[in-house]
Amino acid sequence: MNKLSKKLICLFLLITLCFVAGCAQNNNSLDISMPEGGNTSTMFYNEINRALTEEDFAFLRRGLSLEEIVALVGKHDGIVGFNILTPFYILTDGKLFLGFYPPFSATFESLISATIEYPDGSTRTIDLE
Questions:
Q1: Residue 45 burial (CB < 10 Å; 0-12/13-18/19+)?
Q2: Burial 60-90 (b: 16+ CB within 10 A, else e)
Q3: Contact 57, 96 (CB under 8 A)
Q4: Phi and psi for 66 in degrees, rounded to 5?
């Protein structure tokens, strides 16, 4: 192995170490966990202390961007999914999942669905006019 190769390997290892150390010390980093028996991963943001209800999302309409929704009710509580990412809000009586188009993108450009999952496992799809 020549000197240039050794230097490049050392540089790569140093950058990797700095990245890992930085993530470990960052309190705003995501906690990523894999639910038991599932193929989906859940990425939670820092806990947001608020009490959102279904009524807080009465404004939802087809075509809204996530940025527009965040401007009205604040940052979503997390993202769930594997390939198809779905932002969600924790409500006082369940979770609201937002589906966007294009589905395989993290740009969340155009709202196409909104579903509430209640603690008993039942769901309700919100009519987006």
A1: middle
A2: beeebebeebeeeeeebbbbbbeeebbbbbb
A3: yes
A4: -60, -35
Only one residue has tokens 């603690």, namely 119
Largest CA distance in the chain: 66
User: What pTM was computed for the model?
Assistant: 0.64
Beta strands across the sheet bearing 110-117? 31-33, 41-44, 78-82, 84-91, 94-101, 110-117, 123-125
Residue showing tokens 């820092």: 46
* pLDDT, tens only, 38-92: 444 556 565 677 899 999 999 999 999 999 999 999 999 888 877 788 899 999 9
- Whether omega before 102 lies within 30 degrees of 0, making that bond cis, reads yes
